[in-house]
Amino acid sequence: MKRSLVFLAALMGLATVQAEPDGSRLYARHCAACHGLEGTGGVGVPLALPAFLAGAPDAYLEKTIRHGRPGRVMPAFTGLSDAEVEAIVAHIRGWHPQAPDAMAARVPGDVQRGKTLFAAHCAACHGADGKGGHGTGVTFSRPRDLPIIAPALNNAGFLAAAPDGMIKHTLVHGREGTPMTSFLEQGLSEADIDAVVAYVRSFEQHAEAPPELGHESPVITRISPYSLQETIESVQRAAIGYNFRLIREQYLQDGLVPEGEEDPRQVVIYSCNFKLLDDVLKVDPRVGLFLPCRVTVVEQEGEVRVMTINPRRLSYLFNNRELDEACEGMARMYEAMLEEATL
Ligand code: HEC
Ligand code: HEC
């Protein structure tokens, strides 16, 4: 009896070790929210397009999953095992089983000439320095100029994943079903295309590192020299001065404790600057998670503190450089506002 139990346990252990990771489930869990369950695209670009998969080696897909796209929303999946990454790639490959032949790591070309050609033919969509179109994928950032936003090319994750041969393939064939069309058909010669590829590769020398914001405090705090009531009024005045409309004022414990038992020395002031809200929602709708602006005023041991969330620190969680810039502006405004309220 005991022996058969041990045997059974060993068998089960073996079964969990040997079970193949399920690529379709892993894809649904880690990728579908952004790229669509069927790979048709969303916050992320479409992955199921035959024109994309015909030119993307499996190693490119693997490396993209591992490196992500720093500052361009696509996260780096460092916690998945090799077998799990391979299973996801096999699932994606299932949409178009024909993988391209091995692609050249390097394509020699005239970088200076490539730079001129890039300015003339690519910058309008991919940005002057290859930092990508405004927004990402197919659903972010409304209004927008293109149905699919051009990815960042000066991105460390992209450059680490894409061999030159793949970039060349993309330029020669374009990506049918996206705004990216064939440059051979548009009249560039193969030497021109090689020059552009060499120029795109040269971005590697100054691919931007994302800002290090992990050390930022999640909360902006100021000590007020005034009484609780004076501070509340002062915060409201400062907010109005920064074009915030006051929405409401309530106890921090509202709804958390029986009515009438809330601590009156913990107050939250809700306000909204509609222009700011509109601007940042266009960049990344996920800021909705920490807007409208909430300023908390608390009196503790005779000291009045004024606090608000730090948008810089929250933006850091979203891996979106454009949002980082918008949140930097927002954080400065919050700091100035609290400064003024506690002057
Ligand atoms: C009309 C806008 C437009 C122009 C012009 C354009 N592209 Fe693109 N490009 C795109 C879009 C959109 C995509 C994404 C396509 C997709 O989702 O598969 C893309 C994809 C790419 C990719 C693949 C990137 C990746 O992450 O897989 C490369 C490389 C690229 N473009 C290079 C260039 C270069 C170099 C030029 C100039 C010779 C150029 N593109 C011109 C819109 C454009
Ligand atoms: C939070 C959203 C998000 C998640 C989750 C995500 N991606 Fe992405 N992915 C993106 C965005 C956005 C881009 C385009 C980056 C750009 O615009 O520069 C991208 C780009 C890619 C590309 C490059 C496509 C091309 O045309 O070259 C691949 C491949 C990819 N993702 C695969 C995956 C896989 C596989 C997963 C799951 C393991 C995943 N992504 C999870 C948002 C996401």
Summarize the structure in short:
The chain is of the alpha+beta class.
Task: Explain what this protein looks like in three dimensions.
- Helix 5 (58-67) packs across helix 6 (82-93) and helix 10 (164-173) crosses helix 11 (190-202).
- Strand 4 and strand 5 form a beta hairpin.
- The radius of gyration is 26 Å and the shape is elongated.
- It folds into 2 domains: 15-206, Cytochrome Bc1 Complex, Chain D, domain 2; 219-341, TATA-Binding Protein.
- The chain has 15 helices and 5 strands.
- The N and C termini lie far apart (78 Å).
- The protein has helices at 2-18, 23-30, 32-35, 50-53, 58-67, 82-93, 111-121, 123-126, 156-161, 164-173, 190-202, 228-241, 274-283, 311-315, 321-341, and strands at residues 219-224, 245-251, 266-272, 293-300, 303-309.
- It has a 5-stranded antiparallel β-sheet.
- By secondary structure, it is an alpha+beta fold.
- The mean pLDDT is 91.
- The site of one heme C has 27 residues, from helix 3 and helix 5.
Summed over residues and divided by their number, the pLDDT gives a mean of 91
**Could you tell me the number of beta strands?**
5
Distance between the termini: 78 Å
**How helical, in percent, are the residues?**
40-55%
CATH topology of the largest domain: Cytochrome Bc1 Complex, Chain D, domain 2
Query: Which overall shape is indicated by the principal axes computed on the Cα atoms?
Result: elongated
Strand order of the largest sheet: 1-5-4-3-2
Q: Counting H and I runs of at least 4 residues, what is the number of helices?
A: 15
Structural Rg: 26 Å
Low-confidence stretches: none
Largest sheet: 5 strands, antiparallel
Query: H/E order of the elements?
Result: HHHHHHHHHHHEHEEHEEHH
CATH uppermost class of the largest domain = Mainly Alpha
* CATH H-level superfamily title of the largest domain: Cytochrome c-like domain
Number of individual domains: 2
Going by helix content, strand content and strand pairing, the class is alpha+beta
Measured by DSSP, the beta-strand proportion falls in 5-15%
Architecture (CATH level 2) name of the largest domain: Orthogonal Bundle
